Automatic annotation (TrEMBL):
Pfam families in alphabetical order: ABC2_membrane_3 (PF12698)
Keyword Cell membrane: yes
Name of the protein described by the UniProt record: ABC transporter permease
Membrane disposition: Multi-pass membrane protein
Domain of life: Bacteria
Gene Ontology cellular-component annotations: plasma membrane
Domain ABC-2 type transporter transmembrane: 19-383
Keywords from the UniProt entry: Cell membrane, Membrane, Transmembrane, Transmembrane helix
GO molecular function terms listed in the Swiss-Prot or TrEMBL record: ABC-type transporter activity
Organism of provenance: Staphylococcus agnetis
Length: 410
């Protein structure tokens, strides 16, 4: 046990102090903090208040547009301006935009003048305000009371709900959008961590082997104990990075009002979202464990460090295939038979089953089955990693087939 801990600590702390770990972890943390404070950062680089001129002969129209828009946009000021001064005011940057309002037989039309092309959203907002004013004027001409006008202008409420057949559970569109966002974020995080640490363990094992350091190591430590300690050390570093990322998210929720911002976006921690987050964390862990141990096996089979890229190619292709199957197929068409089958295939299920669970129709037991399959797979891979290192530690065959046969011999 003492020798195991010595190898584990050496691997863990050397990786923990490496520049790659420190830089990538800090980048992740800064990105999360940046997203949590996106509104404050935007305000820092904002030019200040926007100034919009309204050109109209009708004071009632001017007052209505100004009052309505100022209530919606507190960082924007509105003032009346003559048509002859608009172009010069834009050139002198005294105003950002100008609303030129025209009236023709009770119908309102507008032109937006600006130094930069106005967005479609800005056009729609002005159109909505003018339509409301125009409708009110027509209603008054028709002699409608204030109550009748209120009933007339009350918009219809349209919402969406997806009913889960059989169990009666449902989710709204916001919940569906957040589920897709969680899957997208989790899948990218899983892919990055797998590629990073799979490459690290493979290089670690192959470097020891090709530099003949392993010849000295096996005289003091059993090969099987050494490889398990080394894999455990790399996995512990990966877990440390995941914990650091999770702690940063929690800190942002507590100290930077991220929770309030999510509530402002109608984000609710529903049973469906909770289930998805829990399974996402579990699949992140077992996905990293699976691919890292598999990478250690591939590193054992490498005779030359120059061949490492070629040796890791199967793992990279397998991981990318899993990622794209889960990200595209499962989200867009989770009931597809191919996707259902792939969600129980080893190496694919961390991505595919995770994505399928974003759909409420996917039963929880499918996620549990995928977890059990992968726990068994991890144990099998650990056994092969130990056996391959023990048998191939002092062999340097150039062909991968010969190296594999020797590694798996009794």
């Amino acid at each position: 046990m003492h020798k195991f801990l010595a190898t584990f600590k050496l691997t863990y702390f050397s990786k923990l102090k490496s520049k790659a770990f420190v830089i990538t972890t800090l980048l992740f943390m800064l990105a999360i903090i940046g997203i949590a404070n996106a509104d404050k950062i935007i305000k820092m680089f904002d030019d200040g208040q926007n100034h919009i001129a309204i050109i109209t002969q009708d004071n009632q129209v001017f007052n209505y547009i100004k009052k309505t828009n100022e209530a919606l946009h507190k960082d924007t000021t509105y003032k009346k301006l003559s048509a002859s001064k608009v172009d010069q005011a834009l050139k002198d940057e005294k105003i950002d935009q100008a609303y030129i309002i025209n009236t023709d037989d009770g119908r309102l039309s507008a032109t937006i003048k600006a130094s930069k092309a106005p967005s479609e959203e800005e056009q729609k907002k002005l159109q909505t305000v003018l339509t409301q004013y125009q409708s009110q004027q027509v209603a008054q001409k028709l002699g409608l009371s204030a109550q009748e006008q209120k009933q007339l202008f009350t918009p219809s409420n349209v919402d969406t709900k997806v009913i889960k057949v059989g169990e009666g559970q449902s989710i709204n569109q916001n919940e569906k959008d957040f589920s897709s966002f969680i899957v997208m974020l989790g899948s990218f995080l899983m892919m990055f961590i797998i590629l990073n640490y799979a490459n690290q363990i493979a290089m670690e094992v192959a470097t020891e082997k090709t530099s003949r350091v392993s010849e000295m190591i096996i005289t003091s430590v059993k090969p099987s104990l050494h490889i398990i300690a080394k894999i455990s050390g790399v996995l512990a570093v990966a877990l440390t990075q995941i914990v650091a990322i999770a702690a940063t998210i929690v800190a942002c929720i507590i100290f930077f009002d991220l929770g309030k911002k999510l509530k402002g976006l109608d984000f609710m921690l529903t049973p469906h979202i909770t289930r998805l987050i829990v399974f996402g964390i579990i699949f992140l862990l077992i996905g990293v464990f699976t691919y890292v141990v598999f990478a250690a096996i591939l590193g054992n089979l490498t005779a030359r460090i120059e061949d490492m890229g070629q040796t890791l190619m199967p793992l990279t292709m397998l991981m990318l295939a899993s990622f794209y199957t889960g990200y595209f197929s499962a989200v867009t068409n989770p009931d597809n038979l191919f996707v259902k089958i792939m969600s129980h295939v080893p190496f694919f299920s961390p991505f595919v089953t995770f994505a399928r669970l974003s759909i409420p129709e996917t039963p929880t037991y499918e996620g549990i089955i995928a977890i059990v399959i992968h726990i068994v797979l991890i144990l099998v891979l650990f056994y092969f990693a130990k056996k391959s290192y023990q048998n191939a530690v002092l062999t340097f065959e150039k062909g991968w087939w010969k190296a594999l046969k020797r590694a798996l011999q009794k």
